[in-house]
Each structure stands twice: as structure tokens, then as C-alpha cells.
Design a protein that fits this description.
The protein is mostly helical. The chain has helices spanning about 1-20, 40-50, 60-65, 70-80, 100-110, 120-130; strands spanning about 80-85, 90-95. It has a domain at about 35-110: Orthogonal Bundle (Arc Repressor Mutant, subunit A). β1 and β2 (about 90-95) form a beta hairpin. α2 (about 40-50) crosses α4. It is found in: Nucleus. One of its GO terms (molecular function) is DNA binding. Its main location: nucleus.
Length: about 130
């Protein structure tokens, strides 16, 4: 019994010394705080990130752009979708209207459209006719 009492009193004494001291308030230094960059710059940086990889975790994007998590989530909600299940669960990917494939198809469609113009610039047509 004496041995158990010594263990109990020894462990409680350790707990008091460990937890008995008040924790000092740790202040975050100014260098450690992240400041918000302008929204348009953050969006450009996020588009660059999604050009590197199609799917990003929030932690990965936070590390990449070095912005506050709440601000990052706010901007991501405008340009990206969070997959909640499946292979890419808890990963963000660009919304279809911002993906490069959609933009390429739209640009091809507008170049090939014939809205009163044959798709050839007037200056180009004149330059081609100067061969006379």
C-alpha cells in the first residue's frame, strides 16, 4: 500500500506542478499574422494554383496563398466547388464556368460564329487582295 500511495501522491504532485501554473497568454507576433491581399489578386493566385493541380485541399491552398482561412473559404465559394464525397472528398476544384476547358470551348465558339462577319478581319482581307 505504501508503494501505491507514493505513486498516487507522486503523480498528483506532478499534475499540480504541471497544471497548477497559470498559462501565460501567448500573443501572436505581427510577423506571424497573415494580412488579407486584395480579392482580385487572391483570385488570380487561386487560378494559378488550379492550373498546377485540378484538386486542392483547404490546407494546401492556405499554405500556397498564405491567406486567412475564413477569407480563403469566402473567395473559394465564388470560384470553386468543394467535393464532399468520393475520391476527391474534401477537395476543391474550379466551377465549370471557370475551368480552362470550358473557356477554350467558348472561345472557339465565338471565333467560329458568324455574326455578320465572315470571321476574317477587314484589314486581313485587304492585305490579301494587295497581290494585284
Amino acid at each position: 500500500m505504501d508503494e501505491n500511495e507514493n505513486r498516487a501522491s507522486g503523480s498528483s504532485g506532478a499534475a499540480i506542478t504541471k497544471f497548477g501554473n497559470p498559462v501565460l497568454n501567448q500573443q501572436v507576433s505581427i510577423e506571424q499574422k497573415t494580412t488579407r491581399m486584395p480579392k482580385n489578386e487572391l483570385i488570380d493566385l487561386l487560378f494559378n494554383a488550379f492550373e498546377l493541380y485540378a484538386y486542392w485541399s483547404l490546407i494546401g491552398l492556405k499554405t500556397y496563398v498564405k491567406q486567412p482561412e475564413s477569407y480563403l473559404e469566402e473567395v473559394l465559394s465564388e470560384i470553386a466547388t468543394l467535393d464532399k464525397e468520393g475520391t476527391y472528398g474534401n477537395f476543391y476544384h474550379l466551377k465549370p464556368e471557370y475551368s480552362r476547358q470550358t473557356a477554350t470551348h467558348e472561345s472557339i465558339a465565338t471565333v467560329g460564329s458568324t455574326s455578320g462577319n465572315s470571321g476574317v478581319d477587314d484589314d486581313t482581307a485587304l492585305e490579301n487582295n494587295d497581290d494585284d
